[in-house]
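Exercise 3.2. Students should predict the tertiary structure of the chain below and write it as structure tokens, then compare their answer with the key that follows.

Predict this chain's 3D structure.
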Amino acid sequence: ESAKSEAPAAVEEAPAAKKAKIEEPSAGAAEVDVAAVGKLLAFYFGDANFRHDKFLQGETAKDAKGGFVKIAVLLTFNKLKQLTTDPAAVAKAIEECAATKELLVLNE
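Answer key:
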């Protein structure tokens, strides 16, 4: 699955939607603080960070289907690695956390 941001765009796209793709691998996230993961993802893709984050902007620009960022890419971020290395936990946080529910969308 992948995540897609629904917030205002900071990238050079015509639509006013910032997008982040996240490829979801296996099911069954390990015991992880889903709220903390969601809060961190909300920060990464929030307006305050995303508009200045050239790496994330570049990753969203790589995807022709809508500006998605793979979960594997997100798992290279040191702060996220401290919380989890499980792609399913990241996917769960995107789907269930209040901080990301309106900001990111998973793409299968």
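Discussion points: The CA atoms of residues 64 and 82 lie 30 Å apart. Helices lie at 34-45, 47-50, 54-62, 71-74, 78-83, 87-96, 98-101.
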